[in-house]
Write a structure and sequence with these properties.
It contains two helices and seven strands. It is mostly beta strands. It has a single domain, classed as SH3 type barrels, CATH 2.30.30. It is globular. It starts with a strand and ends in a 25-residue tail after the last helix. The model has no long low-confidence stretch (mean pLDDT about 85).
Length: about 120
């Protein structure tokens, strides 16, 4: 999740970039010191919105409007083309965060190269 002012941008949710593109960020990544998102493009079409397959990288500063803004601009729920398997929107983590900013970290176990498993602490 990336927060800019009052807007929160989650992975797997449609957002609008400053250049007007509709995208779905699939990952937030730091590149050369700048926060960026790997994204797929979303294109409205007569039979419903479609999701592209090519991955683009955009700086976080290029994000203008979040999922709630998009839904408001279309007057309700996004209509996806029948052939499209869109991620569940809004991202379920929004409810978990209850409006607060949310951070998720991936940590590797020391000297093993294996991802840390949070339930191993229980």
């Amino acid at each position: 999740m990336y927060a800019c002012g009052p807007r929160q941008f989650y992975i797997d949710e449609v957002a609008i970039l400053k250049n007007g593109w509709l995208v779905i960020p699939t990952a937030w990544i730091k590149r050369e010191g700048a926060l960026c998102a790997d994204c797929v493009q979303v294109m409205p079409a007569e039979g419903g919105w479609v999701i592209g397959t090519q991955v683009y990288s955009f700086a976080a500063s290029q994000f203008a409007y979040n999922y709630h803004d998009v839904v408001e601009s279309v007057g309700g729920e996004i209509k996806w083309a029948e052939s499209i398997e869109a991620p569940k929107m809004p991202n379920p983590l929004r409810e978990l965060a209850q409006g607060d900013d949310l951070a998720i970290f991936c940590v590797e176990r020391a000297n093993t190269g294996h991802p840390f498993e949070p339930n191993s602490l229980l």
